[in-house]
């Protein structure tokens, strides 16, 4: 099948499909026993990210089980700091731990070797492009410069990314240098993923919601706009999904300001607002992952609500954030059946 005929690619191009294509953020993950088994075989989480046969296997697992319309490359947004030489490990139950960067460390960062370092991830993309069912869209991804920077400054996840917000306000020039390195690294990494066979790429700005308007424009909109422009300078028809999670009213105008082709939305938006937004740009989202855990009518009514309000326009059905390990597998099937049934 030609790339532009795949369902997710058609929606990105502006078509409305019934039923809408479906995939789930973090669809390869700990809620699946087969993921846990492969993860154990690989050793650490990063070992799994850099093992092309096993990373390919875990990417394919949710496609085999559920027949999702898109597969997302198995990797992590923090492979970029790893490729920049920042010490990184993932601790069970704690998430990522990095050596925090200061002004001196930022000044030494060099984006030029990132693509070479990430060759195993690019090999995974290449393998996936050959092994996926022909109708399945292959998505590559990276973290947005702001979100990746928040982890590099704090050294770990935090509830409100206070350390990076403070750093950006008190040392804006140093922070700009960090963002510039991440713009270069992310651009070349996404270009390499698209060249290796990704059909489209998604930019995760998971921490875009903690900034005021001025800082949001400077650290979220501008850098993503530069990444999009750099990618399109090499690959003019590159399809790019933006996901500035939780930004509320700032969703308006985001696609036009950055140049992304589709935007992911979380569940904390009024449906009327989401419908208006969909007049600007195709939408991906936006089921609350907690409803997927709850199941029952709580899940069914939310699925129906999304379909009723958003499936008259271009929609890729997804969660508003990643699925979590405690989610019962039958609830995932319930969601998929419901989306395909109510349409
Ligand atoms: O083996 C494990 O169980 C480790 C858990 C795990 C997984 C499965 C982490 C650690 N990352 C991933 C994979 C991952 N991460 C994917 C793969 C593909 C898929 O979606 O199926 C993707 C797209 C990501 C992206 C990612 N990593 C984001 C952006 C999306 C989001 O969730 O907001 C972020 C913020 C990260 C950082 C990260 N990596 C892992 C954790 C636990 C975290 C969050 C840390 C925190 O803020 O505390």
- Helical content stands at 40-55%
Order of helices and strands: HHHHEHEEHHHEHHHEHEHEHEHHEH
Q: C-alpha Rg, in Å? A: 19 Å
Sketch the major β-sheet: 7 strands, parallel
Report the bound ligands by name, code or SMILES: coproporphyrinogen I
Question: What percentage of amino acids are in beta strands?
Answer: 5-15%
In the predicted model, the low-confidence regions spanning at least 5 consecutive residues are: none
Question: Structural class of the helices, strands and pairings?
Answer: alpha/beta
Name of the level-1 CATH class: Alpha Beta
Widest sheet: strand order?
1-4-5-6-7-8-9
State the domain count.
Answer: 1
Number of helices: 17
User: Can you tell me the overall shape?
Assistant: globular
CATH architecture title: Alpha-Beta Barrel
- N-to-C terminal Cα separation, in Å? 24 Å
Number of strands: 9
For the residues shown, what is the average pLDDT? 97
What fold name goes in the CATH topology slot? TIM Barrel
Could you please describe the fold and organization of this structure?
It is found in: Cytoplasm. It comes from Pseudahrensia aquimaris. The structure is a single chain. This protein is an alpha/beta fold. The protein is globular. It is built from 17 helices and 9 strands. Helix content is 52%, strand content 12%. α2 runs antiparallel to α4 (52-66). Strands 1-4-5-6-7-8-9 form a 7-stranded parallel beta sheet. Strands 2-3 form a two-stranded antiparallel ribbon. The chain has a single domain, classed as TIM Barrel.
């Amino acid at each position: 099948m030609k790339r532009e005929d795949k369902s997710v690619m058609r929606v990105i191009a502006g078509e409305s499909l019934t039923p809408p294509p479906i995939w789930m953020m973090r669809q390869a993950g700990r809620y699946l026993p087969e993921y846990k088994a492969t993860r154990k075989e690989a050793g650490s989480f990063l070992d799994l990210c850099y093992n092309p046969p096993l990373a390919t296997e875990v990417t394919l697992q949710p496609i085999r089980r559920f027949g999702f319309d898109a597969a997302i490359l198995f990797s992590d947004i923090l492979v970029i700091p790893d490729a920049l030489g920042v010490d990184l490990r993932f601790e069970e139950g704690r998430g990522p731990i990095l050596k925090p960067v200061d002004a001196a460390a930022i000044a030494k960062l060099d984006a030029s070797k990132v693509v070479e370092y990430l060759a195993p991830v690019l090999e995974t993309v290449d393998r996936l492009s050959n092994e996926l069912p022909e109708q399945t869209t292959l998505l590559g991804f990276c973290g947005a410069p702001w979100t990746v920077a928040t982890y590099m400054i704090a050294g770990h996840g935090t509830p409100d990314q206070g350390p990076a917000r403070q750093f950006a306000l008190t040392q804006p020039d140093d922070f700009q240098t960090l963002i510039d390195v991440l713009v270069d690294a992310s651009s070349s990494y996404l270009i390499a993923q698209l060249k290796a066979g990704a059909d489209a790429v998604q930019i995760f700005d998971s921490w875009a919601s903690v900034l005021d308007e001025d800082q949001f424009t400077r650290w979220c909109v501008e850098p993503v706009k530069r990444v999009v422009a750099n990618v399109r300078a090499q690959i003019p028809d590159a399809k790019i999904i933006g996901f500035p999670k939780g930004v509320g009213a700032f969703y308006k105008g985001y696609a036009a300001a950055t140049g992304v082709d589709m935007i992911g939305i979380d569940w904390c938006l009024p449906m009327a607002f989401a419908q208006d937004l969909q007049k600007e740009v195709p939408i991906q989202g936006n089921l609350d992952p907690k409803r997927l855990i709850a199941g029952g009518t709580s899940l069914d009514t939310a699925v129906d609500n999304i379909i009723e309000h958003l499936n008259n326009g271009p929609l890729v059905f997804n969660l508003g954030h990643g699925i979590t390990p405690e989610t019962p597998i039958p609830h995932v099937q319930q969601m998929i059946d419901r989306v395909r049934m109510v349409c």
